[in-house]
Design goal:
Blueprint lengths: L2 E4 L15 H15 L4 E7 L7 H14 L2 E7 L3 H14 L4 E7 L11 H8 L2 E5 L30 H7 L5 H17 L3 H11 L13 H8 L8 H10 L8 H4 L2 H8 L4 H8 L1
Parallel strand pairs: 1-2, 2-3, 3-4, 4-5
């Protein structure tokens, strides 16, 4: 399947060459078709929400591309959950092409998508396609406390110098290194690599369709694919969940609390309520 995104600048420094508006959409799709030497794109993502373009303009433009046969399916990436759900409702009401997938950052060290984005996607039938499932490489076990450098700068860093870039971006923290240590422990128990364990956890997460891997070499690709053979035990999953747990925030933490469960359902558990509902 061939997937691509649109919204970032086609010409660096020219704000009119990017954005989520119709002109940018059509120009970037036509450029992708030429560069990829294809007649159509399987999956087109709206990427990086710009908070300026009316959602009706975006949805109608996407629907036109689908009707023209230049795009088969449409999706969205890096947008607020409330905006995605609003777009899906409008598309449904007007008979336009619906969003079929959500791309979001998600890994053991970045689980905040569990607050709204992933539950929304599951409720609305969107496939979840996480990017950076290895936390920028931190979960591969290649980093240590000696790599921490709070004074680092992002300026001038490139993908070829990924380690210093991740340090400068703030990925190498005590919390993230503690999570990486737990991943290494589980990997040692299973005879697997840390990357395989981190990817296997993402694959096990409810709602996830498939993570995006960023292998740059054949050996990395083969190692990543090995995650498909990793079976995490309940106790190992529990350890990884505990070390990487996040604050769900308001109102999610309140709604998940024992107090709310007691005052709304008494002694009944979710499993019991589900049985009554079925």
């Amino acid at each position: 399947m061939l997937a691509t995104k649109y919204s970032t600048l086609r010409r660096p420094g020219d704000p009119n060459s990017g954005g989520t508006h119709r002109k940018s959409m059509l120009a970037l799709v036509e450029a992708s078709l030429r560069q990829l030497n294809t007649d159509y794109i399987d999956l087109l993502y709206v990427n990086v929400w710009d908070f300026r373009t009316p959602v009706e303009e975006i949805l109608r433009g996407l629907d036109d591309l689908v009707r023209q046969g230049k795009v088969l399916y449409v999706a969205i990436s890096s947008a607020p959950a409330w905006q995605v759900s609003r777009m899906q409702a409008i598309a449904d009401l007007r008979g336009w092409s619906p969003l079929v997938a959500l791309q979001t950052e998600y890994s053991l060290i970045e689980r905040t998508a569990e607050r709204d984005l992933i539950p929304m996607a599951r409720e609305m039938g969107l496939g979840v396609v996480p990017f950076s499932p290895l936390g920028g490489g931190v979960l591969t076990g290649k980093y240590s406390r000696e790599d921490q450098n709070p004074a680092g700068s992002v300026a001038g860093e490139t993908a070829s110098n990924r380690k210093s870039l991740n340090v400068a971006l703030g990925w190498v923290t005590d919390r993230n290194l503690a999570i990486a240590d737990a991943v290494k422990e589980v990997a040692s128990e299973l005879g697997r690599t840390p990357a395989q364990v981190a990817l296997a956890w993402t694959l096990n997460a409810p709602g996830v369709t498939a993570p995006i891997i960023g292998a740059r070499a054949l050996a990395q690709l083969e190692d990543n694919l090995g995650a498909l053979q990793v079976d995490l035990t309940p106790s190992q999953l529990a350890r990884l969940e505990e070390v990487s747990a996040i604050d769900l925030g308001n109102p999610h933490a309140l709604l998940a609390s024992e107090h709310i469960r007691t005052v709304t359902t008494g002694d009944m558990t979710i499993e019991t309520l589900d049985r009554f509902a079925s």
